[in-house]
Amino acid sequence: MIDKINANLTNGSQLGFKAQNLNRRGTNPNFTGVSPSEIKGQINKMQNPFMKWMNKFENNIGELQDVCINAVGTGLLAPIFIKYNPLSKTDEDTRTYSAWRQPISAVLAICTSGLVTIPFSRLVKRMSNDGTFSEPLNKSPFQDEDFLTKQAKKIHPDWTKAQIEADVKATMKNQEQALLRSIRDNDTVNYTLRNITDGKITTKSMAKDKFQDLLLKTLADLKEDEQKQLDRFNKEKIPNRIARCEYFRTHSKESEDLLNSIKTKINETDKIDDIIKFLKDKRKSVKSDKQLKQMITEMLDYAQVDKAAVSHKVDKMLGYLAESKKAGSLEEIKRIVENGTAGRKKQYEESIEFLKSIEKEINNGTKIQEIEKLFENNKAKFSESLKNKEFAYEVIKKLKDLTKSRIDGCKRIANLIVALAVLPVACSLLNWIYPRFMAAVFPNLSNKKHGNESQELVDKATKNQEVK
Amino acid sequence: MAITPVNNTIQTNTQNINFQGEKKSSTNEKLLKAGVAAAAVVGLGVAAHKGKWVEKAMKWLSESKLMTGKIYPNYEKKDNLHFMAMIGVLSIILKDGLGCYLYVKQSLNNKEIPDDKRKFVAALDLANGGLMIATQIIAFFTIQNKRVQKRLFDTLFGKKFTRTATKATQAKLKKLDGEFAKMTGEEFYKGHDQYKNGVSKAFGYLITLAASSIFAKRVVVPFIATPLADKTKAWMCRNDKPEDVNADTKNTYNANKIDADNKPEFKGSTQEQKEIKSTTSNLLEIAKQKANA
């Protein structure tokens, strides 16, 4: 079994990509091999039951579930508020008759969604993954996991879940490497295009101007990120630190007492639960003091990790306290904080300046490998966030984002057209089914039952009444 | 004298035979029409499937000028709230507006719905449709608005994602054995952002579901639409002649809660007098009234 999985991993994926067995870590030093979904899963394990439930909910909610929840609302809730409506003066029978229209329309909504909306949505997904759509909506260089899983199941119906998962993972890895190579080596993105009529597969590369546009958009995102961080630094981080240091200056005794008591407690015990309990009690006792409360909340966050983390945080705060106590005025505090943060501020500013210079390089047609070299050579002056980024990977990220946005836009308009086209059919169906359903199930509310009775009345009239 | 009833009987029987025959032939005709329509739909479906019409239409739409020139550039922009609002409101008005028009029109012309209830059904459709459009537009700009949802999420769960809380989570993960210990900052933030975005998306969906899909659309709308439908029906019936209600489908609801059997009768009000009061000369109506009495 393991041999079979290994064979598939090395021999290539289901879609004909020759496996290169490329090590992700080898190409990008910023990745150790832990996937974001694994980290996401691990973070989820640390959360409370409600957050876990929300995460589960996010993973399981699909279009069908959405339609069903809406239909349950229409079918069960709405009729109650029509039938038992105290504000209405219309008689109860008429309201009951009208209320029954809701559950019937809910059932019809599920049918229409099942037959039209959901298959249509799946069709769009399939068309973008298998290359039927042209480049703006084409996902062939980075196909979706569920599309690849479906394909693998189709090609290898005898495979186990583990084999399919391994194959899909390998295919996705290979696709990412292939995409990275085409961006780095050829300054383009290679697409697979499928002809609708004969199913013939061809390949096409992204046009030079489109690729340049993609690079500029990627750069604009990076610049925006840096600008946001600089703004946050200026508007939140520095004022907050000034406020805390000023508090330390003006309330040095209270702060010192609190920090020292926490420090003593940490030194006294090795049990993290005792430290957490102590911090919680302390937080209750200082409820009116916003700054002290905030400090303890931060320490509680670190206490969730371990004793060393919370101890380190307390030491850091004691350091700020010692420095702030020396300051004679608020102006002095401001100067200390600004001096302390000047380095980071400069990093953000220099990162933005560098990105602006790269914009010129892209417009001049500089190759991506050259741009990456420029990134590497200037890394020392970058902000922490930009240091961890690799331009080619950022291009891939942007390409995925743009394709997804365009698919969303196309889907929105197409769904609107489909909904408008289906509406007359759904409406006619409801109008056909509803009175017949009512006549069959609630003959007392519907006069259909009395079709023959009216005939009897006619007969009765001809026998007993003489026409004058 | 003896010939007249015989003639009457013959006439009545002939009429009945003709009536049933017409009914039968009209049923057959309806069945035939339905069969032809069903066959046409199936044929069209097969042709569409074989010719891949839907795929071709979708591809054409995806490459159309509307998409490449207007929709894609606007969807590519981040936080393009003005355009998104325009598309959202347009979509609501078009879908619900057309739906409302079709439902009202078809309900009014649906002879299968009892006469005395038809207008109320249509009025409810109209009130429901109008209110649904209004509610959805309000929800679109409030509870479904991404900024409002973010604000609510930050208020309720923001403390779990503060800078210190995030750093603490990272430190916790780093303490784990295996690859997590070697995890880089970027890897952590990627996973962390995915988690935060996922939970925030679920939260947005949940509050939209609770406030808009369930409470506003299924509770508030029918609650207001029902009394509004009374007024709409009254407006629809403003030029109508008074309509007789079928005895067997007559309303059982009595606002004054007076028992029908103990209804007070005026002195001298007799069956004969009631008959004299009847102004109709239609024998069927007279027979109906008698039967009802």
Helix tally of chain B equals 11
Structural class of chain B: mainly alpha
Write the element-wise H/E pattern of chain A from the N-terminal end onward. HHHHHHHHHEEHHHHHHHHHH
Using only CA atoms, what is the Rg of chain A?
33 Å
Structure summary, number of beta strands of chain A:
2
How much helicity do the residues of chain A have?
Answer: over 70%
Mean pLDDT of chain B: 76
User: Count the helices of chain A. How many?
Assistant: 19
Number of strands of chain B: 0
N-to-C CA distance of chain A: 97 Å
Apparent shape of chain B = elongated
Characterize the largest beta sheet of chain B: strand count, sense, and whether it forms a barrel: none
Shape of chain A: extended
Structure, explained:
The complex is a heterodimer of chains A (about 475) and B (about 290). Chain A has helices at about 1-10, 25, 35-45, 50-60, 65-85, 90-100, 100-130, 145-155, 160-185, 210-250, 250-270, 270-285, 290-305, 305-325, 330-365, 370-380, 385, 390-440, 450-465, and strands at about 190-195, 200-205. Chain A has about 475 residues and is mainly α. In chain A, strands 1-2 form a two-stranded antiparallel ribbon. In chain A, strand 1 (about 190-195) and strand 2 (about 200-205) form a beta hairpin. In chain A, helix 15 (about 330-365) packs antiparallel against helix 16 (about 370-380). Chain B is mainly alpha-helical. Chain B is built from 11 helices and no strands. In chain B, about 20% of the residues are buried. Classes of the chains: A mainly alpha (about 475), B mainly alpha (about 290). Chains A and B meet through helix 3, helix 4, helix 5, helix 6 and helix 7 of A and helix 2, helix 3, helix 4, helix 5 and helix 7 of B.
